[in-house]
Design a protein that fits this description.
The protein has 2 domains: about 55 residues, Orthogonal Bundle (Arc Repressor Mutant, subunit A), CATH 1.10.10; about 150 residues, Tetracycline Repressor, domain 2, CATH 1.10.357. It is an all-alpha fold. The N and C termini lie far apart (about 65 Å). It contains 10 helices and no strands. The mean pLDDT is about 90. Helix 1 crosses helix 2. It is elongated, with a radius of gyration of 20 Å.
Length: about 200
């Protein structure tokens, strides 16, 4: 009996994993993807899907959580020490494409999940940038006349804009990080100070 229950649990975990993976892919292509499409992509029936997730919102939440977890793992490897301006450039290089990949998924999440949950899911990446901006301000290289939260939101808005520009054919993927970094450094530089070169930070 114990081994049968263990096998059932393993089957359930495999189904859940397949559903969440399929949801991330389907919603990443089309934020309006239906649960039927997601179930088909996961190679499970709707009954199985509903056995694990009570609503579309739960499926979207699980897919968004997985995307954020993977993003956090990637960002853990980014060196944010040293000159805050160069650290910002490294952060942008590593993170902007994560924003691009998750953009459609985020649209789905914004439709299904309350704003508080969206903020909670983004708290890890946001905390990294907030800490970096705070350090840059303390070292006198980032402006102090605007709130940290505003500067972080500006950076994320520029990242989302870069994704839109790529889709519109006005920006190539290989140039996006440079454009974002140049724009962010201009926005973060204290008034009256020279804007640093994106490649050198000085």
């Amino acid at each position: 009996m114990g081994s049968r229950n263990t096998a059932k649990r393993a089957d359930a975990l495999r189904s859940i994993d397949a559903i969440v993976e399929a949801a991330a892919k389907c919603l990443g292509r089309n934020p309006e993807a239906s649960l039927s499409e997601i179930a088909r992509a996961a190679d499970v029936g709707r009954v199985t899907l509903y056995a694990h997730f009570a609503s579309r919102a739960e499926v979207v939440d699980a897919a968004m959580s997985r995307a954020v977890d993977r993003g956090n793992q990637a960002l853990d490897a980014v060196d944010l020490t040293g000159d805050p301006r160069l650290a910002l450039a490294r952060y942008i290089e590593a993170s902007w494409h994560l924003v691009d990949q998750a953009r459609a998924l985020l649209v789905a999440a914004q439709r299904e999940l309350p704003p508080g949950r969206i903020r909670e899911l983004h708290s890890g990446p946001a905390a990294r940038v907030e800490a970096l901006v705070a350090r840059g301000r303390a070292e006198g290289v980032f402006r102090i006349d605007l709130p940290i939260a505003w500067l972080v939101n500006v950076l994320h808005a520029v990242m989302h804009s870069a994704a839109d520009e790529i889709r519109a054919g006005r920006l190539t993927s290989d140039r996006a990080a440079g454009h974002i970094t140049a724009t962010a450094l201009a926005a973060f530089t204290p008034p009256g100070a020279p804007v640093p070169d994106p490649g050198t930070g000085v």
